[in-house]
């Protein structure tokens, strides 16, 4: 099957396994406009691939995804149409991942931040390199953690622990992510893809209907619990996107980045 995607997101076939790679290594997998669109649209294309049985989602280079591309996000300050489009597309990414029928293994090879963190945690199995970490720093830049963190972390982790990391945006080391229930297991970095492929091969050999129906039922719990919180989260994120504090913090980040 041919995939209609920009270069920022690649799909490689390995028998029944599809390896989806966030392909902006020079930018640490930061999500720009093209990549954001691709992450919203790849799941329907994968579901239409009748030869696919399992998906591995990973990043190229040193990161899984560093979250939103600073230049793209800064453009929202003066472009409300692009801002609102990004929110709609962000909701689509979460919805498509929840509906996607095949098992997805996250091979978190490096930092998974913001949307990158949300996508990793939404996968069915999360293998995380021992040097990687998760983080949701929305609040630190004056935003509500609307693209998933505030809505579904409390379904996976003790609420008291969720609050601390969501309120501060602190990094969650790999071992702590496993302890909290945000990752499945820690893997040595040089063995990460081998372990992901071994697990994918095992899942691909399972009876397809039984596996997919089990995933669908498990995800019903998530979808039902997330309906209200996700809608409220994205709406609240839009409100904070137009706040003076967010503008000031984002512009300060852009200034620091330009000086490096």
Structural topology:
Layout: E1 9-14, E2 17-22, H1 33-47, E3 54-59, H2 70-75, H3 80-99, E4 104-108, E5 112-113, H4 115-122, E6 125-129, E7 133-135, H5 149-156, H6 159-168, E8 172-173, H7 174-180, E9 185-187, H8 192-204, H9 208-241, H10 244-259
Parallel strand pairs: 2-3, 3-4, 4-6, 5-7, 6-9
Antiparallel strand pairs: 1-2, 7-8
What does this structure look like?
The chain is α/β, with parallel strands linked by helices and 260 residues long. Helix content is 53%, strand content 15%. The protein has ten helices and nine strands. The chain has helices spanning 33-47, 70-75, 80-99, 115-122, 149-156, 159-168, 174-180, 192-204, 208-241, 244-259, and strands spanning 9-14, 17-22, 54-59, 104-108, 112-113, 125-129, 133-135, 172-173, 185-187. The chain has a six-stranded mixed β-sheet, with helices on both faces. A three-stranded mixed β-sheet has the order 5-7-8. Strand 2, helix 1 (33-47) and strand 3 form a beta-alpha-beta unit. It is globular. The model has no long low-confidence stretch (mean pLDDT 94).
């Amino acid at each position: 099957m041919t995939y209609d995607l920009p270069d920022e997101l690649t799909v490689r076939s390995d028998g029944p396994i599809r390896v989806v790679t966030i392909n902006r290594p020079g930018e640490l997998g930061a999500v720009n406009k093209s990549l954001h669109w691709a992450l919203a649209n790849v799941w329907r294309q994968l579901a239409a691939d009748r030869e696919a049985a399992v998906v591995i989602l990973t990043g190229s280079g040193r990161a899984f995804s560093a979250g939103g591309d600073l230049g793209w996000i800064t453009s929202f300050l003066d472009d409300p149409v692009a801002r609102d489009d990004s929110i709609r597309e962000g909701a689509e990414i979460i919805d498509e991942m929840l509906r996607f029928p095949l098992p997805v293994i996250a091979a978190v090879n490096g930092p998974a931040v913001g949307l990158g963190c949300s996508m990793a945690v939404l996968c069915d199995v999360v293998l995380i390199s021992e040097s990687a970490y998760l983080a949701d720093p929305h609040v630190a830049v004056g935003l509500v953690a609307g693209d998933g963190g505030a809505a579904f972390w409390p379904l996976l982790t003790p609420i008291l622990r969720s609050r601390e990391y969501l309120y501060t945006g602190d990094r969650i080391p790999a071992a702590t992510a496993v302890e909290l229930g945000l990752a499945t297991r820690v893997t040595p970095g040089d063995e990460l893809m081998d372990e992901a492929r071994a697990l994918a091969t095992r899942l691909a050999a399972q009876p397809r209907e039984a596996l997919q129906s089990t995933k669908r039922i498990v995800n019903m719990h998530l979808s039902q619990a997330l309906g209200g919180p996700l809608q409220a989260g994205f709406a609240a994120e839009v409100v904070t996107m137009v706040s003076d504090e967010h503008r000031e913090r984002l512009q300060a980040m852009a200034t620091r980045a330009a000086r490096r």
